[in-house]
Design goal:
Blueprint: H1 10-20, H2 25-43, E1 53-55, E2 58-60, H3 62-68, H4 90-102, H5 107-115, H6 118-123, H7 139-150
Helix pairs in contact: 1-2, 2-4, 2-5, 2-7
Amino acid sequence: MKGVAKVERITEVAKFFLQKEKMTHKKLQKICYYAQAWFLANHGEPLTPDHFEAWVHGPVSPVLYAKYREWGWEPISIPEDNQPYFENPRIADYLELVYKTYGKYSGDELETFTHNEEPWKKARNGYSPSDYCRNTISTVSMKDYYKKRLTPKGDKK
């Protein structure tokens, strides 16, 4: 997707996923994280300028947390007429692929995935699993880790 305009805010990415289904805040956070991570791996730049932090339950965007925290553990829904805005309509195609890959999983399953992946672990280095932590997950770490997962084993690229 050369020349793809970045999404203005992570909240637009969240709106896209919430148009697909009602989901918990935890699931929304993780699926938005994967959208950012795989975009970095595939395109070398972030999908959105918003960052993720290594919280106890996995990656969290503080922007999304502030917007949706009142939902607690209940599924979030938004009105159907609240459409996300993307400068480039190809972003929606990309997000559709992310949803097809991760949408079938629960927030707890996605949390488990992220807890076993290097970017979250690196950002939490020195913290126990239950320690409060707001360290930023490095976009370089995300890009490098997920890019390696794109390269077939044995390929020396």
